[in-house]
Design a protein that fits this description.
Layout lengths: L12 H5 L4 H20 L17 H12 L5 H17 L10 H13 L4 H20 L25 H14 L5 H16 L3 H6 L5 E2 L2 E5 L6 E5 L2 H6 L14 H14 L8 H14 L4 H8 L4 H19 L5
Antiparallel strand pairs: 1-2, 2-3
Helix pairs in contact: 3-6, 7-8, 8-11, 8-12, 12-13, 12-14, 13-14
GO molecular function: DNA binding
Family: Belongs to the 'phage' integrase family.
GO biological process, one term: DNA recombination
């Protein structure tokens, strides 16, 4: 990037050379530079000249500029996740100068998320990504310091909700019997949700699941999130949910916010009261597998976990289900 001290002479020296009043214009610009640059350096952002000569003060623009430069190195899942969190920040504050990204801004963001009833695990995840965004702005020289550098974001292991086997059977049966009562979006969202309950696929992998990923009744696919290769035999219930090969993708999956909205309305129409959401399906698959006696190591591989400890969390919940059920046999 061009050094701040000589940005007047470069990268646009030819333009000034051929300007009729070039010497006068250059002298005036140098005079402005002497007063402007020191002022900018006292703020929490610096002067950035892009190819169109724009001054980058807006925090979101600085982050977006960095993401566009690095997009080739990011997976589609990661890039979309960052874009979603930028959108979420804009819902909190439509625009914000880099100099105003302070501890007060961060505290306000936390209160905003709590007011929207975000879980603590969701809030912590959002704060982690905000810290990444600030570091991106620093790399773009739009900010000098990170107000979150000393912030400790505690990993909050929230309660993983899941469907009981009986609940899953009820939803599956109602879908097969009464899906005609649903709108197209509700039907396809619930279809994808149930498919995830029986296969453990993440939302991003549901959305990109193609017929080429399915061979001999088994899913072989690299996950969008980690790039790990997963191998999942498709149970009969999931095969019944797969549509005919009239498109390259197996399922029609809408964007995440609409997906969850469709799930809730579909469940209500079919007489199911529990609040459904994307991650509930994956949690259901993991807990059901372990409850049915499938070894944790096998479940971990099907889920695409890189760390067995992550899968063991589900084992703890499965144990609580077993303990509760065994009480029914006490005389």
């Amino acid at each position: 990037m061009t050094n701040e001290s000589n940005f007047i002479d470069s990268p646009f020296p030819i333009l000034l050379t051929f300007h009729a009043n070039a010497p006068a214009v250059r002298a005036e610009l140098r005079s402005m530079q002497k007063t402007t640059l020191p002022l900018l350096k006292t703020r929490n952002y610096s002067l950035i000249i892009f190819n169109k000569g724009h001054l980058m003060q807006d925090f979101y623009q600085a982050v977006q500029h960095h993401l566009e430069k690095e997009s080739a190195k990011l997976s589609r899942y990661t890039y979309d996740t960052y874009r979603w969190h930028l959108h979420k920040l804009r819902l909190y504050r439509e625009s914000i100068d880099c100099k105003n990204v302070t501890e007060a801004f961060i505290r306000g963001y936390i209160e905003f998320m709590r007011a929207r009833r975000n879980q603590e695990s969701t809030i912590n995840r959002s704060l982690s990504i905000l810290r990444m965004f600030i570091n991106m702005a620093i790399k773009e020289k739009a900010m000098r310091t990170n107000p979150m550098k000393d912030t400790v974001i505690r990993k909050h292991e929230g309660l993983r909700h899941f469907l009981e086997i009986e609940e899953l059977q009820f939803l599956y049966r109602r879908f097969l019997e009464s899906s005609a009562q649903l709108t197209y979006s509700e039907r396809e969202s619930l279809r994808a949700f149930l498919f995830s309950c029986f296969t453990g696929l993440r939302y991003a992998d549901l959305k990109t699941l193609s017929w080429e990923d399915i061979q001999n009744g088994k899913i072989r696919k690299r996950t969008q999130k980690t790039g790990s290769l997963i191998y999942i035999p498709i149970p009969n219930q999931a095969q019944n949910l797969m549509q005919t090969k009239n498109a390259s993708l197996v399922l029609h999956v809408v964007n995440n916010s609409s997906f969850n909205k469709n799930l809730r309305s579909a469940a209500q129409r079919l007489g199911y009261k529990k609040r459904l959401h994307t991650h509930l399906a994956r949690h259901t698959f993991a807990t059901a597998c372990i409850s049915l006696g499938i070894p944790v190591e096998v479940v971990s591989r099907m889920l695409g976990h890189s760390n067995l400890q992550t899968t063991l969390i589900y084992a703890n919940y499965a144990s609580s289900v077993i303990d509760r059920e065994m009480k029914k046999f006490q005389l």
